[in-house]
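Here is an idea for our session: we take a single protein and study its fold together. Start from the sequence, derive the backbone structure tokens from it, and show both lines together. Once you have written the record down, we can walk along the chain together:
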Amino acid sequence: MSLLEIALKLLLAVALGGLIGLERESSHKPAGFRTNILICIGATMMMVLSGLIFQGKEGVENHFSRIAAGVITGIGFIGAGTIIQAGGIVLGLTTAATLWAVAGLGLVIGAGYYWVAIIFAAVIILTLVIFRQLEDQYLKKSIYKYSLKTKYSEDILSNIKRIALHEGLKFRELNLKKEDSTSVIDFSFQATDEKEQKFNQSILGLEEILEIKIA
């Protein structure tokens, strides 16, 4: 295996892993652009390394399968670190599954199946984009009305908006009223029960929050 071939495999890993990472980054997920690139090129390099070490020896296919199994097992530990259980809700499963798939993508590239890798990456991206849109459009949604009493802070409104953006929520009728050393923030949004509970857990993590009323 030449240095040029190795370089091309790693560049393809950067390109395809980066495309998936961009989608994750635009969705404000914890494992974003660089994480997906590193996992993809890491898995690719493991396959390349196994090919270099066992080149010309018998049973190379068995060595490839062992390396692949080791990488997939190892990536499970990283994926597990992205899964959080809070308030009875499990968060981060899609991120963990994406990392697992990206590791598989790197193995396919490292094994030299370039067109298969391109098709595989396209399927991953389409799954993340299209099915997210289908979920947002067809899953049962409710309208939630929030009234927050908070300590006065110049950053509180931007922090709440940032959390909403991270969860893919759009506020309606956003109002802020200052009362001495406190503020009252009223807003509403439409979301699934799961997204509302994720948003609620994140809001509770803000130290400025004094009281939450939900209608």
The mean pLDDT is 80. Residues 114-138 form the longest helix (25 residues). The domain at 142-214 is CATH 3.30.70.260 (Alpha-Beta Plaits).
